[in-house]
Specification:
Blueprint: H1 9-18, H2 26-53, H3 58-61, H4 64-87, E1 90-93, E2 102-105, H5 107-110, H6 113-154
Antiparallel strand pairs: 1-2
Helix pairs in contact: 2-4, 2-6
Length: about 160
């Protein structure tokens, strides 16, 4: 299933309006936050692996400057991966009457079958599901092996 931020638009427009966030940015901000949280989980897993496998060197490897640089790089990556979502974002129309929002997609980019195939099917699924999921599983298995090795060495 391809997740799209549009599913939450009706619930989020009140939240964005109360914070004075332009409504055109809500889908982009949601996708950036989603990407950031997925890859921040991966970064925490890498941090745990370094702390478990190299406990003596971990403090020199995991400095605050490197952590700050990693978080900034993650932010830039999140914006770059989701930039086309901003281009395809919903155009909000404010009705004269009523409380509800009318919205539609920009047809030029979203109607392109090549764009939908490449970005929504391949890029989004690979970068948001396949790569992080596989890496988190592999790194957690590595952490588990390291912990078991340490446990065996202690109990010899």
């Amino acid at each position: 299933m391809i997740f799209c931020a549009d599913q939450l638009m009706c619930q989020m427009h009140d939240f964005g309006g109360s914070l004075n966030i332009p409504l055109e940015l809500i889908p982009l901000l949601y996708c950036i936050a989603y990407t950031g949280s997925v890859y921040l989980t991966l970064m925490i897993t890498v941090d745990r692996l370094i702390a478990v496998s190299m406990p003596i060197r971990a403090k020199s490897i995991l400095t605050s400057n490197r952590t700050l640089f990693s978080i900034l790089a993650l932010g830039i990556f999140s914006v770059a991966l989701n930039f086309t979502r901003w281009i395809e974002s919903i155009e909000w129309k404010y009705p004269n009457e009523g409380r509800y929002w009318n919205f539609h997609r920009r047809p030029s980019l979203y109607a392109s079958s090549e764009y939908n195939t490449i970005y929504h099917l391949y890029v989004w699924n690979v970068f948001m599901y396949l790569i992080p999921f596989v890496l988190v599983i592999v790194l957690n298995i590595k952490i588990w092996c390291e912990v078991n090795l340490i446990y065996l060495l202690i109990n010899l």
